[in-house]
Amino acid sequence: MTMPDSAHSNLMVPSTHEGDVILSVRDLSVAFKTDDGIVQAVSHLSYEVKRGQTLAIVGESGSGKSVSSLAVMGLLGSGNSTITGEVHFDRKELIGASKDDVRQLRGLKMAMIFQDPLSALHPYYTIGKQLAEAVTAHSNVSKQAARERALEMLNRVGIPSAEKRIDDYPHQLSGGMRQRVMIAMALINDPELLIADEPTTALDVTVQAQILDLLRDLQKEFGTAIVIITHDLGVVADMADDVIVMYGGAAAEQGPVREIFYQPEMPYTWGLLASIPKDGDEGQLDPIPGSPPSLIHLPKGCVFAPRCTFKHLVPDNACATSRPDFSQTGPNHAARCHLTIEQRQTIRIDRKIGK
Amino acid sequence: MVPFIIRRLIVMVGMLFALSFITYVLFYALPVDPARLSCGVHCTPMAIAANRERLGLNDPFFIQYLKWIKTIFVGRSYGSGYVAVHCPVPCLGFSWNREMMVTAVIGSVLPVTVYLALGAFVLWMVVGVSTGMLAARFKGSIFDRGVMAISLIGFSLPSFFIGLVILIFIVVRWHWLPYPSYTPPSVDFGKFVGAMILPWVTLAILYAAYYTRLTRSQMLDTMSEDYIRTARAKGLPEKVVVRKHALRAGLTPIVTSAGLDFAGLLGGAIITEKIFGLVGLGSVAIRAVEDLDLSMLVAITLLGGFFVVIANLVVDILYAAIDPRVRVK
Q: Is A43 helix (H, G, I), strand (E, B) or coil?
């Protein structure tokens, strides 16, 4: 990932080729018309994902992380949503492209897995049929060939005795197995990009690590770029090369994973990091006070200001009156905050934020 | 699948027995004396007492119930000597008012009720489900809103109103059709349809309105399911998403309603039958109530319940065939 206006490659992970960006999102905004008013679900989001790398999008519920990915996949439906900005996937512009063009990419070049694998799989069809369907949707192969490919993928994602389970219905599998099936289905056409929307949230803790391991293995094997949406910073630390912290529909901070964890630049990210349970916390968590903003009436100033404990450090009440720009703090690191670089540094040292 | 059906069959038999018992209790509790009914005009207290003994009305209640059940399965004779009439299996009793076997009366009017229910059923399912699907497909359009408004009206109007309006305009005012007079389809199919079309439409309007709304909401619910999003994420064309993924799941709950509504109609459509002068189970039931014809009432109630229980079984089997979560554990 790079900043929109920065052509430099990521410092963290050396890229193999220049320009092997698979997904480039620029200035993406999504608004929904509702009876209560216009919901600005995503505002001016920009990011890039390179082949074989992982971008994590972190945020609370309603921060726009899922909506932005559904917009990339063309899964929002044209009903009441307005999408603006640019989404370049494999050098094709998706926003404004015909529905059928985007559909042909879906499942073939870009795939998605969802939070709850039980509701995401059709209850009436065997997993074999559902996997084979993903193959035949994009190529003219025989049913038998599609089934063989399905079996191959089920074996690959670690379904035990896959040749028997292939004729099982989703309700006959455990949650972890279902998510493996979803992963097999998403990767069956060897896509360039996989969007994983909270892939472990609905699973048992013991299974979560297995699923993440599986994703990482498959990524290594197939070179798939992954966008992982999560609210779990453990998952971020585990998986991501780059991170976007979203708040109120916009990126609050984005940068390489190491910098986000070791040199976070704004109070919301500090709050997120402080709310991770640590050794020696004696059961005391440190939550961020308040609750996320309504996306219908966003505050005029910084969207995080109402919950920010540092806003008094900024002169002229600027946090309440003007929205901070997304300002570069490192080669690929940017944050939205009115605090000066020096102020942030002092706070980090005082509060032992980052390491 | 087979053990599932066997399980359901056992439950069904149990339900039928429970139903027969409850029905019998209800009518046993009515303040009507069958011994008096079977006695005729010139009746003496002695004759009533004799009848009472002959009909087994002095037996304990449970014995009477068992005898009644036994009669259904083995038949019996009424009267004695040269006036004796045999009631063959399934014997549901003798109607003293009509001086006929209950089964014979029911057998003669059942076709009318079945044709009425079947025709209306086909009509309302075709119209209701297809309109509902179109309304869901074009949700929010003028078509959708129009259909919803019309169906609300159709749904709110009682059948005696719809039936009478149809009768007054189409038959009496405009003479488009003659006044319905029932002809069996085997005699003259054209006349049969001519007589049945108005009652069919009357019943169908009521149900089609409901099924339009049901189908629309089912389809809209299904289209917002996660697995529909998955189907789209696979890159399936929208046509396939709707036909293969949404339709089957969306229409399943409609099967349940349809089965039970159809069975309910088989028990007799009293008002529609009355308006169009059809003699089906509904009319017979009304007359049985007026005449306090106990055995007839018990039989019709039991038959109506029987239809519902059977429909339940059929619906359960269909459901299991459609939804593997019911079938495969």
A: strand
